[in-house]
Design brief:
There is one protein chain. This protein is of the alpha+beta class. It has a domain of 74 residues: Alpha-Beta Plaits (2-Layer Sandwich), CATH 3.30.70. 41% of the residues lie in helices and 11% in strands. It contains 4 helices and 4 strands, in the order H-E-H-E-E-E-H-H. It starts with a helix and ends with a helix.
Length: 133
Amino acid sequence: MNDKQKSHQLAVIRETECIGCTKCIDACPVDAIIGAQGQLHTVISAYCVGCNLCIPPCPVDCIEMGNRTNSDMPPLSKQETIARHQARKLRHKNKNTIENHSFKIKPMQDRKKYIEDAVKRARSKTNKNQIPM
């Protein structure tokens, strides 16, 4: 299939078969597929570049490539598509950075000890500041 034919292709999700696994969303390089875990997904026709990358990860094979029709929104320009891809890459990079540097919840014993130590410090300060009578 040549590039001209590809540009007229569009991913189509058979929504009645979609299980909402989000694997196609992760595979799409231009975020043309929307949906949530456990919910059906759909393709934003204007964003789809016809790359076929969403098809292999689908566990129920509910995605196929179809031809664009006149009622479909026109595809984005090359510059707009590149901008969407760059924005997606940045979003994923930021997400990974946040996940890698997120605060880890300490075990309950550590949290209790931290609170007990803070209370002791506060009491010792209070006792030092009291004027003897």
